[in-house]
Amino acid sequence: MAACQRPLVVFLALLAIVLPVFGFGQTQPQRIISIIPSTTEMLFAMGAGPRVIGVGNFDRYPPEAETRTKGGGLIDPDVERIISLKPDLVVVYGTQTDLRAQLERAGIPMFPYQHAGLADITETIRALGTRVGSGKEAQALADRIEAEIADVKKRVSGRPRPRTLLVFGRDAETLRGIYASGAVGFLHDMLDAAGGTNVFVDVKRQGVQTTSELAVARAPEVIIEIGVDTASTKGRNVSAWDALASIPAVRNKRIYQLRGDGMMNPGPRISASIRRMAEVLHPEAFK
User: Ramachandran region of residue 185, left (φ > 0), alpha (ψ -120 to 50) or beta?
Assistant: First the structure.
């Protein structure tokens, strides 16, 4: 072989190894694994559910996901089981560096994902749909979600925006361990779209560990608590807030608990979750 041809041969050989790992040059995947609740839900919502063979330990929606083989969780993926299922595509989270390295060594294609703001949800739906060969269905799904969010924004436009404390975690019976949304991430964006002003709009973090004293100082007009229906959140005692009677939201009885995993999941149900927030912030806009 001529010396000038050898670099080209080496380059093509490298492409044959690298491109499949990242999903290029692949046919429509038929054996998909997603251990991230939001992307699992996206796949089912765009009609790719029949091709999903594995999901995460905490993937409960839609109900069909419960019938799939469990492949571990975000921080503890079951790599051996995932590889044993012989997937032709695995959706991986950006922080799963060890999983990504092992899948790359095994030559298994990946779709990298990491949620951020509200706009990233529909962007991911479109990108994931294109990758799995459901681009048209994904486009329609993303368009519908964006239209529903736009409708909520239109309804609350021009109305006073109540200062809101958006709580996603605390002790069930007391006000210990309060975690609230900061000004970064999809939870903050949801509240903004629903017509509320985040009391921590100046804190550029996704979450803020909040004490009772800090909650009093921020003086929210509305408190919204969100959470999934688990043993740790289902019995969260709203009367615990009565101890902070100086907070306007407590004094005016504007404390709302919006339960369900859809409230915490940056997936296809996000527009419905935003509407639920908007309905308690601006009930008059939905009569």
Answer: left
